[in-house]
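Sample intake sheet
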Amino acid sequence: MKILIVEDQQRLGEFLAQGLSEHAYTVSRVGTCQEARDELAENNYDVIILDLSLPDGDGLHLLAEWRRAGFNEPVLILSARDTVQDRIKGLDLGADDYLPKPFSFDELLAHVRSLLRRQSSVKQTVITHRCVRLDLLGHTVKLKEQNVDLTSREFALLEIFMQNAGRTLTRSYISERIWPGLTDTNLLDVYMSRLRTKLETDPGEPMFKTLRGIGYQLV
């Protein structure tokens, strides 16, 4: 199981990373909002432990951004903000759990285990289109029964197409779902090229149709 720790206090971050690693979790640690964005864009995680007071932004804004973009990873807020209103706000913005500082490590472990159990008990959701099988729960993609390695952002992009197979999706619609607030849609072309490279193994059977000046369609 992979856990991402977003915590700018180095000693606390190292303490959490070491403790979780000793319990057989694979742990990565970052200390800023931007580092967390970059990490989630390239890797998948089973749980995210999120501090709110980060040097380059508020963790609540980061959480809201993730949820708008369609990221469904369980998030455990770990924060010194411990009023009832703070907890309500965090949960309303999409957190799955909230643990105030100071805390005991055993209690944090129990919260992590609870989130993982909750995830595993969710009914599996699978979307298929032609020879592509996308597992929303397992966060996996198969092409002709062969696993395809996608980054989190590539997976989110493919999910949008799989949910809207046959529909023409405009560039602005796709970009806003994947990169909220980003006005430059040229990044979409880069990711579409990556998806095509990984999924269009037969040149005679394209999966995506480009509508020049408009957008894309999963065919």
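Comment: The CA atoms of residues 48 and 75 lie 5 Å apart. The two ends are 35 Å apart (CA to CA).
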